[in-house]
Amino acid sequence: MFVYHALKQYVHEPVQMLDLCAAPGGKTTCAMSALPDGSVLYANEPIRNRAQILSENIQKFGHPDIIVTNNYPKDYRKSGIMFDVILCDVPCSGEGMFRKDGNAVSEWSLQHVAQCQQLQRSIVAEAWQVLKPGGLLIYSTCTFNLHENEENVEWICKEMDAEMLPVHTEEDWNIIGSLKQDFQQPVYRFIPGKTKGEGLFMAVMRKRDNEKKGIRERGNKRTRERGNKRTWERGNDSCRPFTPKHPTNPSLHIVRPTFLEDLAASGVYVDVDYAQAINYLRREAITLPTDTPRGIVTICYQGHPLGLAKNIGNRANNLYPKEWRIKSTHIPEEKNIIISLKTL
User: Fold this and answer.
1) What's the rounded Cα separation, in Å, for the pair 181 and 111?
2) Which is the most buried residue in 18, 115, 212, 237, by most CB within 10 A?
3) What angle (nearest 5°) sits at the alpha carbon of residue 292, between those of residues 289 and 293?
4) In the chain, where do the E strands start and end?
């Protein structure tokens, strides 16, 4: 939600945005809700299995202007695509997960923190080269230590000549600022017990127009290579390409949203009531109006497409993806009213 809050403060016209480390997609969908209409968001995840999870969540979100990719940060640098906003929610030592994830505790070490710091700098170094002058870089982690947070932000300011930007906050949010005594720039640390959530660090920076490109590239080449070699797994070279709504560079590996393409291709839309919508999402058989054409149709609820069904007359065979079905036995008897972030 703090990503949404920062974007609302600084982005007031359509932009092209990149969420560089996007899986499983929570920040991506939150960010898209904050962006003005007409914006395009590239949601990237370099780890193949996590990219598939990201793709599934983005498809469920249903926004046509989000493109899911499965690439390294360096691939975006090579693509030549430039962005107005880049979100780097970088891999980290995960100290913010200690309270609910025992594995995060057992995997933590000083060596791991040092490795994370170098990887984070390599990611930012690549991202900075595809950020337009005047563009915004949002840097975030779910950890608490200075090495991955304040020290990295200070490094970005020094190496990239980034301009720190303040984000409006309220006192009762109990957000803590910089813990590094000689670096008192606007940064935001959420600590469990003081703020709601498991932990977050975030900083917003602007790319100045007068950056020294030669110094930046020489200073970060070795860091980028070391970080990519040590930590990033091999990208998915086998993803099937498709033509998204917005043009993109063919060198990027697009995760093909087959389900959404099929929805658009069906051509017949049938609106159902709440009870039928729930039955459909549980992947149960439903009965459609008698005048519904036979064949593949798109099931909708209040005008929003849910998925496909094959109408055979006396019933409709449910084609909703089996792995997406509602598994809970508790289903509200009445519909819940969901307030969209767009209306806030």
Assistant:
1) 24
2) 18
3) 160
4) 16-19, 40-44, 66-69, 83-89, 131-141, 162-165, 188-190, 200-207, 269-272, 295-301, 304-311, 316-318
Instruction: Report residue 53: phi and psi, to 5°.
Output: -65, -45
Predicted TM-score (pTM) of this structure: 0.75
* Among the listed residues 47, 11, 48, 46, the one whose alpha carbon sits nearest the alpha carbon of residue 31: 11
Amino acid code (one letter) for 263: L
In which residue are the tokens 């940064």 written?
187
Please report which confidence band the pLDDT of residue 338 belongs to, taking 50, 70 and 90 as the band edges: low
Peptide bond into 24 cis (omega under 30): yes
d(CA 210, CA 158): 14
Q: Which residues belong to the active site?
A: 142
Angle among Cα 117, 119, 124 to the nearest 5 degrees reads: 95
CA pair distance 274, 280, nearest whole angstrom: 10
Residue 209 CA to its chain's centroid (Å) = 27
Helix 213-231 vs helix 110-128: crossing angle, to nearest 10: 130
Most confidently modeled of 152-156, 270-274, 322-326? 152-156
Q: How far apart are the C-alpha atoms of 130 and 75, rounded to whole Å?
A: 10
Cβ proximity of 54 and 23 under 8 Å: yes
User: Would the pLDDT of 323 be above 60?
Assistant: yes
The whole-angstrom separation of Cα 187 and Cα 192 is 17
Conformational region of residue 134, where left means phi above 0, alpha means psi within -120 to 50, and beta covers everything else: left
Assign 325 to helix, strand or coil: coil
Three-state SS string over 174-227 comes to CCECCCCCCCCCCCEEECECCECCCCEEEEEEEECCCCCHHHHHHHHHHHHHHH
Terminal alpha carbon distance of the chain: 12
**Residue 266 neighbours by CB distance under 10 Å:** 18
Give the model's pLDDT for residue 151.
97
